[in-house]
Amino acid sequence: MTSRNEPCWCGSGLKWKKCHYPIAPQRKVKEMARDYLGKYGIILKTPKQIEGIRRACRLAARILQETCKAAMPGATTDELNILAHRLHLEAGALPAPLNYGTPPFPKSICTSVNEVICHGIPDSSLLKEGDILNLDVTCILDGYFGDCSRMVTLGNVDHDKKLVTEVSYECLMRSISLLKPGIFIYEIGEVIESYALAHNCSVVNQFVGHGIGLHFHEPPQIPHHFNQLRIPLAEGMIFTIEPMINAGRREAVIDPKNHWTARTIDGRPSAQWEHTILITEKGHEILTTLEED
Hints:
Layout: H1 29-40, H2 47-69, H3 77-90, E1 94-95, E2 110-113, E3 116-118, E4 132-141, E5 144-153, H4 159-177, H5 186-198, E6 202-203, E7 209-211, E8 218-222, E9 238-241, E10 244-246, E11 252-254, E12 262-264, E13 270-272, E14 275-279, E15 284-286
Antiparallel strand pairs: 1-4, 2-4, 3-12, 4-5, 6-10, 7-8, 9-14, 10-13, 11-12, 14-15
Helix pairs in contact: 2-3, 4-5
């Protein structure tokens, strides 16, 4: 019988009683899934669900890649939206953002330019040299969800735009690199905010990553800032990490007219990259990457 004072089986370095207790190492997968659903509301995905989510994520990554190729000076974000919508339909998928929420989101993707942090709504505005653009794609394929975003820089960009684009990507990849069963959720935000602050950037704390797969948004929330969320990662968890990094103050202001678009409070640029990640038996798998990435 495992003593509560012994090191936890997950390898976290903590005592069992301070980590996964009462989940014992020999417990069956179904029992662990029941524990996580009851204690945290987290759905640990089955192999069948994981395969479906993996297909949705690969499609989202492919649509995102093709849409990014079309982002150039002189194009409109509405044209990018039309392209992405068509790619969804051709693949037998649906764009998850379309008509989502209250008020209903009116477009199929999010396009966030310069000082827009997230949830930018595509329109007839022309992209121009020196802009940075976040494209965010979430698709529904056979009932499963895949979610990802990335930055596009248009020509030569100024120091602040270059800084947040690079720092946000590094924050994402550094946080992903530590993922494995037993790691606590708060450690993700710790890695992200420590790196951002070291590079004179701030981390938006009004928006978070989230569980995904069977629904657009599921538990748990994944904060990108310092926090105390002591939920241990477990095999079968699927969630997004999507750090929003600002060159100035962290606060976001929501557009009072459309109730969606979030902008930096000081008008300085913001950047975001996003992946959907699966926690595996000994580590993790990035589901929204392509072989050529």
